[in-house]
Amino acid sequence: MDDDRDLTDFARRWAEAERRGDIAALEALLTDDFTAVGPQGFVLDKKQWIDRYASGALIHDSFTWEEVTVRRHGRAAVAVGVQGQQSIYDGRDADGHFRVTQMIVADGAQWRLAAVHLSPTGCRSGLEDD
Hints:
Layout: H1 4-20, H2 23-29, E1 30-37, E2 43-45, H3 46-54, E3 58-73, E4 76-89, E5 92-93, E6 96-107, E7 110-120
Parallel strand pairs: 1-7
Antiparallel strand pairs: 1-2, 3-4, 4-5, 4-6, 6-7
Helix pairs in contact: 1-2
């Protein structure tokens, strides 16, 4: 767990599991108390996150995880990157690019995703003058 290659491998496995909607892989990659905050502020727990795939509601044609920076903090890490997706959710277009913050924690000898927060890219911060 001292090698940053473990975190790089975790990121690759997570993105691949999301792209494929791989329920078994996501079960193993997410902590039991996983929490997600979606791009419109909704909150999902682990079961709800995975159920989007199990129900067939979420299908990705493309899923990328790029521009990632990782900061280690002992047995935890914070990853910030850009998630791109070409997707359908519940029959509607769900394409987009999102700035994503992940909280990754060491669980024994494995890294697991404890929390994720998605924000649409290109949104104004509210600090600019109109």
